Amino acid sequence: MIDETRKEELIDQGFRNKIATIDEKGKRNYLFPKKPKGTLYNKRSLFSIVYLILFLAIPWIKVEGDPLIMMNILKRKFIIFGQIFGPQDFFIFAVGMLTFVVFIILFTVIFGRVFCGWACPQTIFMEMVFRKIEYWIEGDYTKQQQLKAMPWNGYKIRKRITKIFIFYSVSFILANYFMAYLISMDEVIRYVNEGISSHLSTFFSIIGFTTVFFFVYYWFREQVCIVVCPYGRLQGVLLDKNSIVVAYDYIRGEPRGKKASAENQLGDCIDCKACVRVCPTGIDIRNGTQLECINCTACIDSCNEIMENIGLPKNLIRFASENNIVKNQKLKFTTRIKAYSVVLIMIASALVSMLLTRDDVDITILRTQGMIYQTLPSGYIGNLYSARMFNKTHKDITLTLGIDEKEGSIEVLGKQPTINKEGYAVLTFLIKKKSELIRKRKSDIKVNFYINKIKIASKKTSFIGPVGS
Ligand code: SF4
Ligand code: SF4
What we know:
The chain is about 45% helix and about 20% strand. The chain is of the alpha+beta class. The protein has two domains: about 280 residues, no CATH class; about 100 residues, Immunoglobulins (Immunoglobulin-like). The strands form six sheets. Strands 8, 9, 10, 13 and 15 form a five-stranded antiparallel beta sheet that branches. It has a three-stranded antiparallel beta sheet with strand order 3-4-5. Strands 12-16-17 form a three-stranded antiparallel beta sheet, with no helix packed on it. Helix 3 runs antiparallel to helix 16, helix 5 runs antiparallel to helix 7 and helix 7 crosses helix 9. The longest helix has 30 residues. It is elongated and about 110 Å long. The protein binds iron/sulfur cluster (2 copies).
């Protein structure tokens, strides 16, 4: 069995003192990863095609005239899979976020950072869109290095202008889609038809998003995953020896060397560095799990190709836990995993029940300020209220109000309240009770709300009377 000390003896620890993207003078070290190929890369490409089709299709899909997904932060209106949420649903959002965070923690504890390499939008756009465009314009990594090293001439200027133009254009398309997810595709199209001059602020927002995307994908790149993304920084506390990550089998691979054979006692790693050349974050996975590793699996493909060429078994680099490599142990359902699973089930259940029981209309009843009660003709006592309502459905609705008959009667002041779809309305109403039926100064009363005589909500409020005053 190999303990940590032995592992450190086998693997040079010098990598801990530097990061691949910053050179010795502290300047940005621009990476030129080799174009990956292999089974896993093909699967990732296929997955990313489905992902991109969905990304581009969703803003065009409508549910009862509304977008399938819309996150309009400025108007505080959110539509998720056709369900409309308003500011009153903040609590559901908070529980939803909590569920997502616990799910990500649990997923990471078990499967490491595989989300980053396969499903994170940053990686999908960087590796599967912009990087592919770059390979197409500039060629593979050696050609890119040559282009960077060559003096400025017509060829280099042409290549750079083409790349900047295409990167900026794709960023512009992305920014428009990003905007469509915020304000809906219909609005984006309307703004385009009405012209830039009528919607200057939106136009500048799109140009701002475009420039940020361009900066990220043209220059900043893997730095997002290495130094910006908070999820990446969490790996240190989330991963343990049972987590399945992209890992180098150092038991089998070390000591590394050019001639792997039984006579010279070397391991299976021939130190060809194919796994390093292909890494988009510039690390050497043979040093062990590192924060920079986004689990993109490009190094697995690369090493498998080498192993195949030299006639050794594949999977010297593979998805495996430390315990799997050292002790040949399969995934264990540890106490930590069990604890996270229980918490996740509890929060997710709360979220599901909140979603299932939420009303189509959010109603808040407030007593009219500055008034306690009114003495009305014919021996009635009246209380005045206002109700603020948010229609979370996809159509306009007309509400009727009522209370249980024995409690008195209700009278809406003004016309019958109609609330536009996804809109707000405030209505004022009066509740009247016969004074001889009032036994307490303050009593609870239930106001019922109906659409087409079907009760859709019941709200409790209080009724104040003169008794005991
Ligand atoms: S080490 Fe391998 S899995 Fe990790 S980022 Fe580099 S190529 Fe991808
Ligand atoms: S690709 Fe495989 S054999 Fe080559 S250096 Fe990496 S781990 Fe060693």
